Each structure stands twice: as structure tokens, then as C-alpha cells.
Amino acid sequence: MRMEFWRKTVDDIYSDNPPQQPVAIELWKVCTPAEAGPVPGPLTDFQSPSKDGKSQALPSLGLRRKSGWEAAVKRHNLTKRWLMKIIDEREKNLDDKPYRNIQELENYAENTQSSLLYLTLEILGVKDLHADHAASHIGKAQGIVTCLRATPYHGSRRRVFLPMEICMLHGVSQEDFLRQNQAKNVRDVIYDIASQAHLHLKHARSFHKSVPVKAFPAFLQTVALEDYLKKIQQVDFDIFHPSLQQKNTLLPLSLYVQSWRKRY
């Protein structure tokens, strides 16, 4: 039901008829063409009550609301496909089953994390093939790292989402993660998964010289991804090491430095 609500909401947004819901209204502002007209909402000077008590626009007065969102709407005009991919992929994962292999995890990350990055690039006004390639790899790295970081939390709730194929390759069962086993074969599983995230990060950065500079703000999450991958390497891929759950107080500074250097 939740996903059906959001699917219908996105359809309504692109039909210029968003529901009276705060998130939907804000999405409508950035998803639809500038000619869409006033933002639907509470009664304003630009609206009057109709006979049935509902508010209606006053086209006869020739009035049109002018505000900061109008320019934003003109710029963005977001692609509906990326929003629907996020919804569809989340719906597939509502059963909370572990990923069968690393490709399935990457596919989930592509359709969720990468789709968010494609939308962010559109908001930044970036239409570039190299930027899209970088976004695809960064999104996959983000999805893999998120899965790793959440492993202790999920384990505490007796759930394991790590790719089963890699676990089976090293003779590791779900019970090993539920018991927080720190044996070498368990760490080998984490090494293989983390290495895939590192590889995607490396591929994304290989496009650095070809990606427009104005796309870089969308990719600054690579700083946090690299920070986690370095920390997990330092603890020999012990996914349950307490240090991995601690915040890096220098992360904001690292983000600022990378932004200043125009790098990601």
C-alpha cells in the first residue's frame, strides 16, 4: 500500500495534480514544467472558494503566483523514470530477503542510489554522459557500503542481507553474522564485498577529468564512502569492530577540502 501510494502520487505530480501532502507538493515544484501554474494548497489571494467549498484559481483576473520556486521548476523538470525506478525497486525488496549475489545488490543500488544521483544531476543542470557513468558507479558503491554498514544493526534484529553467493563461497552462514563471528572466512566475505565498492569508487573517479565541475557537489558522498572503506580495511575487515560505529568528526572538514579542490 505504501508503494502504491507513492506510485500514484508521482503519476499525479506529473499530471499536474499533486495530492495535498507536503512531500508531494515539494516534488511537484521541481518535477513539472514552469507553465504548471500556482502551487495547489491553502486558500490564497490568488484563489477563491467555489460553490462546493473547494478553492479554485482565478484565471479571470490574469493573476499568477510569482515566487522563487517558479525559476527552480523551470530549471529542473525532473525525469519521472528515475522516481518510478526508486519506488519499483523498493517494492521488490519489501520482503527483506538477502541478496542472492553481488549483482543483485548492485542492481538494487543502481535503481535507488544511482537514480537519486541522476535526479541530483538534473537539479544541478548537468546533462553529461561521463557524469552519468560516474553517478552509476558511485550509486553502486553507496549501496554496497550501506549494506555493509547496516550489517551489525540488521544482525541485532536477526536479519542478514549480504550476498548469499559470496557467503557460500567462503563457507559462511547467516548464523555466523548473527553471532558476530570474527573468523577469517567471515572477514573474507566482507573483504570481497568491500572490494567491489572500492572498485566502483575507482571507476567513478576515472571519469574525473571528463565530468563537468558543476556535477561535483552531487558526488561529494564519495568522501564518506572512502572514509568507511579505509576504516574497515584498518580493522582487517571486522564488520563488527566498534570503531566502525563511531562518527568521524573530521568528515565535514574532508568534505570542505574536496569541495574546495573541486574533486570527488
Automatic annotation (TrEMBL):
Record keyword DNA damage present: no
Region (Disordered): 39-58
Superkingdom of this protein's organism: Eukaryota
A GO CC term attached to the entry: mitochondrial inner membrane
Keyword field: Membrane, Mitochondrion, Mitochondrion inner membrane, Transit peptide
Gene3D superfamilies registered for this protein in UniProt: Farnesyl Diphosphate Synthase (1.10.600.10)
Annotated InterPro entries: Isoprenoid_synthase_dom_sf, Squ/phyt_synthse
A biological-process GO annotation: mitochondrial respiratory chain complex I assembly
Residues in coiled coil: none
Cellular localization per UniProt: Mitochondrion inner membrane
Family the entry assigns: Belongs to the NDUFAF6 family.
Main function: Involved in the assembly of mitochondrial NADH:ubiquinone oxidoreductase complex (complex I) at early stages. May play a role in the biogenesis of complex I subunit MT-ND1.
Name of the protein: NADH dehydrogenase (ubiquinone) complex I, assembly factor 6
Organism classification: Eukaryota, Metazoa, Chordata, Craniata, Vertebrata
Gene symbol of the encoding locus: NDUFAF6
